[in-house]
């Protein structure tokens, strides 16, 4: 039993404790009134100092965690997002000078890593402690799996010696938990094989159709000590344990595809996740331009083909049904019939590295097993020059029709004066990012949320690879958006992959009030790392799903909640926007602070749930896939 | 007798089935004509009947649509637009070849395609295209909740 430091009396009861607390609080309050204002939120020097201090890469003798961290470094692991726990591994990774970030929940850090990879095409890792930290990541591991993100999921685990004992705390069997939401997983059980299983992990991460890889480290493994390499099995350079070779297409099949394209009047490529991860955007453009083939984006990130290109169909939903030949390239999350807006008369081709997936869900006329880049390069070489002038004109007309429809929605949205309609947010954000003083290719956007995304995705544009991270994708998790924004901002701050030309630029994130609840604390992470993120929160006082039922209490929140104040309390700039006219000035102020001071902002846009009803046209919008509106595939 | 043989329609629908557009195609004969059943959009069942007058009928294809509702007027407008000269030729419904009408009985919308020029292949394909567009374009864009409620489409 401890003593009250004021009175010296024992603090043995709850009542006594509460009395003491109340007295202390009152005394503190009085003291504050009498003296100065509360201390300002600040980033302690120890944070930037620690970031600036170079790590000390390990040399033999090494511990298991260091062996693994060195392998990650050799493999080019681009970033680590973590919470405390799994200390040996995360500290060793950090010491290898792999950019490392610590956030507020493991789940959000998992989303951060997913977001990072979705806009860079580079592998990143997330980590949490055994048990609770690991299970906190589950939703976002599943989201990454649905998105086919090559995400390295790391977690500590209890001692092998304590298996099944429930000794102490945090006992859980991790691998069965991630089964069904990962590409590969392994609990490491033999310290000598730590490098070998690291190689297993990166072989899976860097080949075929990607997906999360989950390794869990019992403490005997991460703490094992190795005097030299002779104590490890299969300890050799990556060129010896994996190959960068890729499956190339059968030339006969490429000829068949050329034949189909030559017969087609309105050919279209659906450029999806595999195009991004194989970095084949240049080959894609070469194919499209050589034969005037339309291209529509799909997948969990956008921009592999610029929306500004005359052959882009990403913002021409009305043209999709005209395509008479559809070539899915790297479409890993395959739609079912009805989920894409294509004609029953069209012929369908799939190009995919996994032969076992070709023909799943969507019937095909031709399947080509190949790395997407190899197939597109072969196709570009084999195709004769072709013109499809009428098709190009139809695409242009469909894009214009879509823009006109959006302009009409905006006009309608402006008519609602007592709250901010989503069309106002979407159009004015779009104008600000693409038609103002900012280069239209610059700003990377996390397009999250549920109902709000039905609007913003219609107006957001992608002009280069990795410019849009589609928050909710096939798994439909709306909560990770602030986590995604941490990862995307880290990618832009570091200038990784296609983000390199825009290194240091602010990013924009969009989420809903429901989604903010899941990962809003990561605003603090943004502040801590001075990440210039403008986070737009669409606040309609309800879960988006309330459109599917009566607005009963289970679907509703308190009204007029101040997410901007939460942002301020965590160190960000806050804006509360309650009328349409206030949105753009708030956006400008927030962006300026982000650009000049690297200060995150939360723009709380007060809407109302009735905007999803038919009495408030345009109401809750539907969507057409693939293209800019795509939500599922 | 209309002169349009089920054989010709069967050929067209079989071609869709061979390509995997329709699944589980079957047919039954009755006084109402020849009815083809198949799994199609969102893996849900559809029927198309060739009636004794030679019309292709998607009976009650729009179930749960109230008479005079916004969906109904939207579908009617969509059918009108399908026949518009402003529509690209390859997606236009040429009135001289195929006529289309909509009716509602018991809160279920039925589409009836009348083949005027005797070209069953063209008529059947046009009918399938129009129904496809109603679902994957018009309803998906403007009435997503209807598809969730009546076609078990995911409410994402």
Characterize the structure shown:
- The complex is a heterodimer of chains A (633) and B (156).
- Chain A has 24 helices and 20 strands.
- Chain A has 633 residues and is α/β, with parallel strands linked by helices.
- Chain A folds into 3 domains: 51-241, Thiamin diphosphate (ThDP)-binding fold, Pyr/PP domains (Rossmann fold), CATH 3.40.50; 251-391, 3-Layer(aba) Sandwich (Rossmann fold); 417-612, Thiamin diphosphate (ThDP)-binding fold, Pyr/PP domains (Rossmann fold), CATH 3.40.50.970.
- Chain A starts with 13 loop residues before the first helix and ends in a 27-residue tail after the last strand.
- Chain B has one domain (4-151): Yope Regulator, Chain: A (2-Layer Sandwich).
- Helices cover 37% and strands 29% of the residues of chain B.
- In chain B, strands 1-2-3-4-6-5 form a 6-stranded antiparallel beta sheet, covered by helices on one side.
- In chain B, helix 1 (6-18) crosses helix 3 (120-142) and helix 2 packs across helix 3.
- The radius of gyration of chain B is 15 Å and the shape is globular.
- The termini of chain B are far apart.
- Classes of the chains: A alpha/beta (633), B alpha+beta (156).
- The A-B interface holds A 265-266, 317-318, 321-322, 324, 336-345, 363-365, 394, 472, 476, 545, 547-548, 614, 620-624, 631-632 and B 16, 19-21, 40-44, 70, 88, 90-91, 125, 128-129, 132-133, 135-137, 139-145, 147-148, 151, 153-156.
Instruction: Say what the CATH topology of chain B is.
Output: Yope Regulator, Chain: A
> How many structural units, i.e. domains of chain A?
3
Spatially, the strands of the biggest sheet of chain A line up as 11-16-15-17-18-20-19
Reported CATH architecture of chain B: 2-Layer Sandwich
Q: Tell me the distance between the termini of chain A.
A: 59 Å
Averaging pLDDT over every residue of chain A, what do you get? Answer: 93
Q: What is the CATH C level class of chain B, in words?
A: Alpha Beta
Count of runs of 4 or more consecutive helical residues of chain A: 24
- Report the radius of gyration of chain B as a whole number of Å: 15 Å
The secondary-structure element order of chain B is HEEEEHEEHH
Q: Structural class per helix/strand content of chain A? A: alpha/beta
Structural class of chain B: alpha+beta
